[in-house]
């Protein structure tokens, strides 16, 4: 069992001042596999001080040089692939193939931002065409400064890559707080920083929970930029903290995303996308398309086929290659989903014939459930559940589907399954969501963008926008020579 009582600050392992630890568990075996310190605000002070000391040097490296370091992170992750996938699987409970996909996505993200760091060199001092005569204006981009990065537990290595890679590319130094629920995979990032000889203080990792570290990090006046992924209540607290000192903040929050299936959709494709949209990672996805709006003429067929594919899921040991459904991440998440199932019973929701798969006798497993004809007033329809629970409604028209889809406090993602691709894109254009997938699985390539509208957050990660989130723009104007 590992004991994570040390932070990584200034390229050294530093013992936390806190004496209290939390259990880190294997959600399949329900056993403690590690302990992690709750952290202490004074530990955050040390990490921020190290990041501030390192900032001038890191900022002054060329993008080319920073890109080389970021490429080296990608390579070092690749070299650890087998062990990291296994560690993620044990700490998070997700099936091995999903953990492997996470790592591939994280590596692709580092590689992409290594290229963006290099491209930044070429863009510095670009002339801006302002239409003014007699003046020349140029644009420069500078790092925001020290970035405080906070991530959740559902896609640990991916969420950190989406923040760390662009922050380093931009020339920011960072203090990173991983989720206390899944701190094990992230430990590798500190080991890698040492291995690739990243300059001291550029990357600092402080373990802990929200009270011990999160609040101190977000309140710290030495932190210029906050990037947070997690729940809405904490996101609002982070935004409130960022208000002091008018600091830059990016928020990736929750979702309650819709999937629309029109009457001309290919039923096989629809079933595949609906299942993946709510059961991948046992439904613990911010982008889970957990509200199904299916045309009434296809609804019965779709439900019948959905029941069949749910029955084919293989719950079991996430380390076993045959497993397609893992447990939820911990007891707290399990209880939370059970509360929703109790609410469904109280509300008298119709669970249709969803087969309950034979679940292992240990592990925080929840059998996927499809509730049909769920009223839009139901808590299950409106709130993010973060478990393999699908709420479905039949619709009579595209207009009805769009109205119901957009009637949500969130706007993170959406899927459309339609026979006619042009119709799918037309529907996509009417949806209030940061990412819409038409007739395809949820993908988030690093060159695209990720983020939500409405309650799903502020800003975009990935792509150029993801880099810009860690940059300030400076315009310099002078008389032209002639
Ligand atoms: P959470 O908000 O409980 O915790 C997220 C992180 O914030 C953790 O590291 C936690 O320790 C820290 N934290 C807790 N309290 C804090 C405080 N007061 N100040 C600062 N930091 C604090 O979320 P979670 O349960 O870990 O993750 C699930 C949530 O994350 C879901 O709501 C999900 O939708 C969201 N999420 C969103 C995205 C996205 O891209 N939009 C991606 C993944 C997860």
Report the mean per-residue pLDDT as an integer.
97
- In total, the number of strands is 22
Query: What are the segments in which pLDDT stays under 50 over at least 5 consecutive residues?
Result: none
Q: Which molecules other than protein and nucleic acid are bound?
A: nicotinamide-adenine-dinucleotide
Helical segment tally?
A: 15
**Beta-strand content estimate:** 15-25%
The separation of the N and C termini measures 71 Å
- Would you identify the CATH H-level superfamily of the largest domain? Aldehyde Dehydrogenase, Chain A, domain 1
**Secondary-structure content class:** alpha/beta
Shape: globular
CATH overall fold name of the largest domain? Aldehyde Dehydrogenase, Chain A, domain 1
Widest sheet: strand ordering: 10-9-8-11-12-21
Assign the CATH architecture of the largest domain. Answer: 3-Layer(aba) Sandwich
Summarize the structure.
By secondary structure, the protein is α/β, with parallel strands linked by helices.
How would you explain this protein's 3D organization?
It is a single chain. 41% of the residues lie in helices and 21% in strands. It has 482 residues and is α/β, with parallel strands linked by helices. The protein has 2 domains: 2-253 and 456-477, 3-Layer(aba) Sandwich (Aldehyde Dehydrogenase, Chain A, domain 1), CATH 3.40.605.10; 258-446, Aldehyde Dehydrogenase, Chain A, domain 2, CATH 3.40.309. Bound molecules: nicotinamide-adenine-dinucleotide (NAD). Nicotinamide-adenine-dinucleotide is lined by residues 150-154, 159, 177, 179-180, 209-210, 214-215, 218, 229-231, 234, 237-238, 252-255, 286, 384, 386, 412, 452, 456-457.
